[in-house]
Every structure is written in structure tokens, then in C-alpha cells.
């Protein structure tokens, strides 16, 4: 723990404090509560050895055995210098940063499923190994939670479509090493994005996300709010971070929020 703090909380770093707890319901809920009470500032990191009530998108449950993964949340306050309409890039930015960090620290190629799933290859098959969840914390704060399956074996997976870094052939499954790599990468990308005023094109975030996005080039079904859905080919990520679908009737429909189902492999 002391070594983790020394490696992350230092002059010029985004990270201001690192707190590790043995067990909690949800690091996101805990950190949002701390932020609202004024008990955490920008750069606060909360890590749990075990989460009992972890959540994914659409309030789905995220569960894993104790010490089998990385479960952490960070508090960011991009308000000064970044217009709120550009904050939608934060989960995509986190995906790019996590993928880059895991590539270096674990030697695993991690693809991004729009908007916030982390995919790995297990025996040539694409599996979900992690996810990202963003929640507002007051007017100027955002808490971003990340969950990554690290050491889970086949028998421990919550569903057959899940994966883990170990199953994907990671060269390292040391959680402290992985966490340092991911947080340093997130510090780097967040700094670039803020310096560009949240302009994802200017800081090359838009380009980096598109390059690592497994959704692009596929036929997908987008489940939209209001029981709507759209089927089309995912052709681009626009300047607002939306997924652009080319529909069979020749239209291009931007999707800003929804559940994406990959119907056919790219290419």
C-alpha cells in the first residue's frame, strides 16, 4: 500500500490520495458520497479488494471473487477549462487509458466495445474482461469506476461470455503493477484532454479511441432509450464521442446512449 502511494502520489501527478479497502459494496458509491461531503478532492482513488454490490451500465450487477480483479474509482473535476458538453468523452478516454496501461503492464491487447466495455481474446474468442461506469458527483465532479477481471479462471467466470487477463495470457497478473500502469496512463490521457479544453480531436483521443474500438466496422444493434433500436454498420466515432451507424436505408444515425450488440465480426 505504501509503495502504491509513493508510486502514484507525487509532484506533478494527478493522483492526490490512494485509499485501499478490503471490502465494500461499491467504490463508485463510496467515492461519490465522499465527494459530496467534501471529503475527497480531484485525483482521489478508492480501491477495493472485493466489491459486493458493484454495478455496470443499466444497473447491472458486477461480481467477482475477492482479490481476483481490479475494482477502483477515481474522482475527477474537469470543470475548469473543459465545457460540460465534452465530459461525455470521459468514459471513452478511460477506456483508451486502461487499454494502453494493460498493454504495457500485462502484455494483453484490450479492445474497446463502445461505449465502455473492455474486451480480450480468449482462445480466439472475444470476451468481456472489464467495464467502466461514470457518475456525476455534484456540479463539478465526476466519479469513474473501473472493474477488470484479472485472475479469474473459467470456472469462476460469472457468465460464459466473460474473460480475464489471465485467460488472455497476461504476462503479469500482479494487481498493484497493473493498477499503477492503468492510473499512470489515465493521468497522461486526462492531462492531454484537459490541456486541449476537452477537444478529443485536438488531443488525438478521438483517433486513439477509433483505432482501438472493436465496434467499428461491424454490423450492430443499438438498443436505445424508449424501447427503440437501430441496426446498422458502425462506421465512425464523431467529435462528441457518439457512435455513427450507417443504416440499410442509407441514413447515418448518431447513437449517444444505448446498449450495443455486436451482430457480425468486423471485416
From TrEMBL:
EC number: 6.3.4.15
Every BPL/LPL catalytic domain range: 3-194
UniProt cross-references to CDD domains, sorted A to Z: BPL
InterPro entries reported for this sequence: aa-tRNA-synth_II/BPL/LPL, Biotin_CoA_COase_ligase, BPL_C, BPL_LPL_catalytic, Transcriptional_repressor_C
Keywords: ATP-binding, Biotin, Ligase, Nucleotide-binding
Stretches of the chain forming a coiled coil according to its record: none
Gene Ontology MF: a single term: ligase activity
NCBIfam families in UniProt: birA_ligase
Protein name in the entry: biotin--[biotin carboxyl-carrier protein] ligase
Amino acid at each position: 500500500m505504501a509503495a502504491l502511494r509513493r508510486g502514484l502520489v507525487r509532484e506533478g501527478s494527478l493522483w492526490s490520495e490512494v485509499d485501499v479497502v478490503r471490502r465494500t459494496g461499491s467504490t463508485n458509491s463510496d467515492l461519490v458520497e465522499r465527494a459530496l461531503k467534501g471529503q475527497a478532492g480531484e485525483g482521489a482513488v478508492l480501491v477495493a479488494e472485493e466489491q459486493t454490490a458493484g454495478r455496470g451500465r443499466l444497473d447491472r450487477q458486477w461480481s467477482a471473487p475477492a482479490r481476483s480483479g481490479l475494482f477502483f474509482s477515481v474522482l475527477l473535476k474537469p470543470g475548469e477549462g473543459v465545457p460540460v458538453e465534452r465530459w461525455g468523452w470521459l468514459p471513452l478516454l478511460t477506456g483508451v487509458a486502461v487499454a494502453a496501461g494493460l498493454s504495457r503492464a500485462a502484455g494483453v491487447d484490450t479492445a474497446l466495445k463502445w461505449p465502455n466495455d473492455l474486451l480480450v481474446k480468449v482462445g480466439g474468442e472475444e470476451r468481456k474482461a472489464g467495464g467502466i461506469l461514470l457518475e456525476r458527483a455534484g456540479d463539478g465532479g465526476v466519479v469513474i469506476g473501473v472493474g477488470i477481471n484479472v485472475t479469474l479462471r473459467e470456472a469462476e467466470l460469472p457468465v460464459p461470455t466473460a474473460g480475464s487477463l489471465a485467460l488472455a495470457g497476461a504476462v503479469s497478473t500482479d494487481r498493484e503493477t497493473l493498477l499503477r500502469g492503468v492510473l499512470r496512463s489515465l493521468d497522461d490521457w486526462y492531462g492531454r484532454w484537459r490541456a486541449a479544453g476537452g477537444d478529443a480531436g485536438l488531443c488525438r483521443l478521438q483517433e486513439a479511441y477509433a483505432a482501438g474500438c472493436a465496434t467499428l466496422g461491424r454490423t450492430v444493434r443499438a438498443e436505445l432509450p424508449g424501447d427503440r433500436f437501430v441496426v446498422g454498420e458502425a462506421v465512425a466515432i464523431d467529435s462528441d464521442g457518439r457512435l455513427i451507424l450507417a443504416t440499410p436505408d442509407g441514413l447515418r444515425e448518431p447513437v449517444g446512449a444505448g446498449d450495443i450488440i455486436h451482430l457480425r465480426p468486423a471485416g
